[in-house]
Amino acid sequence: MSGWTSLLLWAVRKSIERRVIVLLTAFPVVFGIFMAALNEFLNGITSNVWILVKNAILFISMVTSYVLAGEMAEKIYRNP
Hints:
Blueprint: H1 2-13, H2 20-42, H3 49-78
């Protein structure tokens, strides 16, 4: 966990250029937790609903951030 935190802190320094780190966090980490919680929810453990909602919001926010950062990078690098 400390390694992942360090990677995210490194990415914050140049967030537009290192925006791919958001996808590396969104897909294997957040999506994986979401799928595990969904599996447990479908097996009858209904207390995982808050995990599903939280991770869905986080995943959507991260993908949206990646797309918006890409648009910003295009504007920045096209017109320096």
